[in-house]
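Reagents: none. Just compute today. Ribokinase.
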Amino acid sequence: MSRVVVLGVFNADVAFRADRLPKMGETIHGKSFHLGPGGKGSNQAVAAARAGADTHMITRLGKDAFAEMALEIWRDAGVTPVITRHADRSTGSAFIFIEEHSGNNAIIIAPGAAASMTNADIDERAKLISEADVFVTQFEQPMGPAHHALEIAHKGRAITVLNPAPAMDMPEGMLALCDYVTPNESEAEALTGIKVVSLDDAQQAAMALVARGAGAAILTLGEKGALFHNGSETVHVPVMNAGGVADTSGAGDAFNGGLAAALARGKAPEEALRFAAATAAISVTRHGTAPSMPSEAEIQALLARS
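Predicted 3D structure written out:
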């Protein structure tokens, strides 16, 4: 089976739905509340596993109820946990506001134990990382371990995928370790200074990321789909229609997990892009983040009719 290794964070998602965010000092009535599993790394690992990849998740957890939630969702999805647990720190958590009429979201994260990850955590798992078919990371955990893990994966056999979220400055040369970098519009703007509104903007931003060293850039563009550029070829994949939009909060993670699973099977970039787009399209028809990730059979069914 194709192997995906993800370095990242698990967060317990505390999600509120309301017509709008309250103003400072204001209290408003919400439409609903939900507590469930999330965190970009964890969501991507769940998505990759449900999409058919042998998936391993590297992180730190606390010794609390939220950690048990993480282990349960990974067990159900088929993710192998590669973790340490720490009694002196909490497991990560996230506040998610979901706008009732649109499904759009705003998020605050507190990574907890995962914020204390170091390069030593990575060195202990160097063999697993270097021998992966695909290695994926983001920026919810500290930058140092993400950079170090990309170095190990790049030197090994792994295809490297960096989802630069949340967007922040990265060390010089880090993009050169990435076979794929996968920002959304706002992250691409933060990294390149190019405001991404149109497909032309997206191509310019992708070209800028490749010029800085990335092997290829894939920009996720919401309702405009996704755009791939590798320096010589540009491919646009429109958004797929899997039904009405219920919640967009897991879409980017679904895309990255689906992309990793497809690349791990040796799919060409355009085919992997379509697989990732289908994964994301199904996820937004459901509430929640990790619980919204579709199975491989569901993804293939959507691709067959799209």
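The CA atoms of residues 61 and 136 lie 19 Å apart.
Action item: order primers for follow-up constructs.
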